[in-house]
Amino acid sequence: MTLRTTARALGAFSIGATGSLAAARLLKQHPPGGFERWVRTNYTGHPVTLLEGPAFVVSAVSGALAGGAGAPAAVAGLGAGAFGVFDDLVGESSRRGLRGHLAAACRGEVTTGAIKMVGLGATGVLSAWIMDRSRTHTGPVATLVGGGVIAGSANIVNLLDLRPGRALKVVLLFAAPLALGRGTRGSRSVAGAAAGAAIGSLPDDLAGRSMLGDTGANAAGALLGTALVGRSGLAGRLLALAVVTALTLAS
Known about the structure:
Oligomer: single chain
Radius of gyration: 17 Å
Largest sheet: 2 strands, antiparallel
Helix content: over 70%
Structural class: mainly alpha
């Protein structure tokens, strides 16, 4: 069973890596809504495309599903990616951060970032619930905490997507041990697919030609959170949530 699980994780990695390259090439040839809609200015003042994000989502989720991860990976990856697309294409040009969105909400202003945060929380809890409904040793508290880990992880990776390669390097740093270590078939396949998609996306990201944007960064973090939640009980999830919360507040 261990060898079969490892083979599935490696297969998910391969699909994620090759799929990200193929999806990025296809999206650049046929960008939804036109190429300019996906262009932003990076920290150096140069144009950069956000099409890396949708390519990452498609390839990572495809790899995870091929590896047997099932509905939790699809819900977490596609859900986070969808709310990321909403924020990328409809949201304000400046990033307010958690404090900015909460302050706006207190003034009665509903920002796209606030909508995204609510959406990430909902998809995170749904993904955790799908994982936990067949596990007798978990309860509603563990599911809610798991949903918080998935949503919080999505936000953390997004916060790192400010410089070329930074977010993808962090994804690889955490995805590799999750894919190669002990864990369920689903959790290892999710991590493997995320690592593969990160490898495929890294060259253009490091070169400053593309970036994950909210779309890819939120999906990458959500998939990492899903991989972690899938192999953890209540104690592990509480520890993960504490770390994610501390990092979010520190940012």
